[in-house]
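Hi P.,

Sorry for the delay on this. The queue was packed all week, but I finally got your sequence through. Input first:
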Amino acid sequence: MTKKGVSLPEPIEKARGNKKPKNKTATSAQNPAMKKKSTSQSAPARRSLGEGGFFNLRVLIGLFVVLAGVFLALFGMGAFSSVFAQGKGTKNISSTTNQASPGTQTPDVVQLVGPVRLDKDLRDLPYVAPKKEFEERVLTRYPRGTGETGATEAPAGYGTSGLAYVQRLLKNLWRPVPTMPPPLLTFEGLGAAQACACAPPDSDGDVGPNHYVEAVNVAFNVYDKNGVSLAGPTTYNSLFAPLTGTPCSGFNDGDPFVFYDHLADRWVISDFAFSSLNGPFYQCIAVSQTSSPVTGGWFLYAVQHDSANPQWLGDYPKFALWNNPQPGGAYIFTVNLFFGPTLGPFEGVGVFALDRGSMLTGGPPNPVHFDVPIAGLGDSYSMVAATFRTGTPPPAGRDAMLLDVDSPFNENTTLTQVKGWKFHVDFVNPANSTLGISVNHSPNALISVNPFVEAWTNATGFTLVPQQGTSDKLQTLGDKIMTPVVYQNRSGTESLWADQTNILNFPNGPTIIRWYQFDVTGGNFATTPVQQQDWSNNNDGIWRFMPSIAVDANGNTAIGYSASSSTMFPGIRYAGRLASDPPGNLAQGEATMFGGTGSQIDTSNRWGDYSMTTIDPADGMSFWHVNEYYATNSTFNWHTRIGKFNFVGGPTPTPTATPTPTATPSGCSWSAGPNLNDNVGGVRLVGVFFPTNGKFYAMGGRSSDSPGSDFTHPFEYNPATNTWTTKSATYPDTQVNNMACGVLTLSGTPEIYCVGGSAAGQTTATARVFFYNPVTDTITSLTAGDNWPGDASGTILPGGFSVFNNKLYILGGFDINVASTNQIWEFDPTVGVGSKWTQKVNTPEGVMYAPTTTIGNIIYLAGASDFQGGLVVDTTNSFSFNPVANTIGSIAPIPRATGETRALNFNGQMLVMGGGRVSPNPSSEVDIFNPG
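Then the structure:
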């Protein structure tokens, strides 16, 4: 049935296996007081002697003898091989022979609802209040004790020796001057007053080409990139209200996660929901229908955390983007599983892969789900999947990867390993999917790292970090790898970057940031890190915690985090290193993003539960960080701050009042690449970037103007190897010059669609449409019913062209040797034969061979050829086209007449690359248009 603006499908059960429920029953129907969302992990299944019970030495000895016999028997059968593999040592078990074979593991059944279309502007959604909030209970892998311990920072003679105190002062005097640039921009994010009187905020966020979206415990907000609020705060109850029949429709409970899918120009928002601790427990997921998180609408989904065990709560969900399996890739998320009615015991980790390609087009998520039991985890929990933004995408077929560290029963335990998992996902044949090794999904690799002590204690509230002006301390969540785990492929070298909070001189501190770079080239984990460091800023005594790491397109690394001490309010800082710096050191030092002016006064002192650092996809170089702070000493009155910085520094750019094109600024540079087509070269072809595999494709074209010189196969450029390859697929005809091409997605599969074209030396043109699949290297022609109507005469070539919202737009055209044309046509690959084309408003003048690109929701055209007096001439014709409103807009004309070239979107600006044929053209000038 259909509600206004919302289509509602029936609930679907995705059969992924035959896992049987545990049939656990609740011990209490009452919900214990917990703040809206639980923060991390689990209550224990075992008790210490101090927790009660009787102790009998003779019984213990007898039991030991019996267990020893059982142990020896099991050991002889190899029953403990996977357990011992998780102990101390340097063993790496990542070889393909130890990866579980397809068909040997059974994915679990997943109950879900969706997709549900939400075709509304966020600003038009009715307000649905969040659930009542209060201090949430922390869930940990094991119990963390009953008494508060851990001294605050103190002068010599109190927890620190006089010599150590003097040494600290000397280090402060001789600390290198930091070169980390200050922030380019900071602005206020959501606060408790706008969201909820709750703690912690769960501050999270990501940046896209035109927006920053921040998520906190009960709501999210959309900003432009200057910090102006565009929509929100919007509660998750409002966003997910259409998911009727699930707790997502009105019982959202926090642990939010938001990220930008840079491959598809889409947004993903998620949190979990439950109406009571008896369950069921669901993950609520929204995928934007377009690039606009405000106006474009959403596809909504509800995925149950564990359908076989509906009373299992999935806590602390973390998401990642992966481009495999081809062609559509996966959205991967993990949760810590607890028996909900009693908030424990800990049951394991749930790992999900969702069918990204299907979800981008509003299709089912087809989840592949495994539960990793305690037998496969050991002392670990909170697995984090790797995601990527910069560098070359993971190679086709590369399995997803996850990292984890132990969270042992006892505090102050020295650890020496990071665990690695490989997740092979097959949406076509889910039974072929595998996670880790054996039916217990044990890790594929144990990576030996420098010894460390995690930053947690058996103190009440799990607290350690001191604050100025109060004896209350803060939690660090220092028993896990923090989000994100960053994958980067630079020139074929594949790495994972990760961080966590550790502690020196337990429990006196301070806490520090431990970060790593792991080599995973070829999809295998190396036995030791490429580099690692315990970042303490030369032991300056400040407590650093709640980190989040990111790596820019040049391989430079930065980590944003919280910082506090007994003489300092909790604030937000970041530190970084250049790719050229010596390994194992954040050599650029530290900068302050925003200084706190208050401390959190509270009995449990929840902080975080996480922060987030991401890279701006518009330039690949700017870091954005969101984190928590307090403005005054108070309870449940947190604030968040969003900031931007990079390794160049400088003032915040200010858009001009009237956008105007400018010539290329100094400082830009070009570097030579390999020659196309065995040095033959080519003209009249279309260059297309294919995000799925990170390669470029030259479609159509010819080697000269002579008849018969038309190319018959696509050419592929691989940035990782800096090489060109001629593909095997063959074009359907020789009319492949001056085509209009772009990447569009149909049924979750991205393809390169091409329209029109002519043969060398001919005055006729084709209207046919075909698509090329670079993954399968195949070309498919559409039927004649889908031919381009703009070439009804058989003599018209496409003019400018660009993709917006999974549709290809053709602006103008060239009636060969007659005139330019002014029609705009929209091509939608998802509709039926004969209905794919829609004519839109006309262009202000005839345009052909026109540089055109999409920025945000607008298509811009600057410079175009025209046919005058029997000649092709260059013009300064420039305008914009709004595909949603179907209107033409005015922009400043390009400074020089040009045409017969391309435009591209870089950093939210249009770059027109040389072009033209009338003297003084052709030109090597690059003109840049800033929409403002």
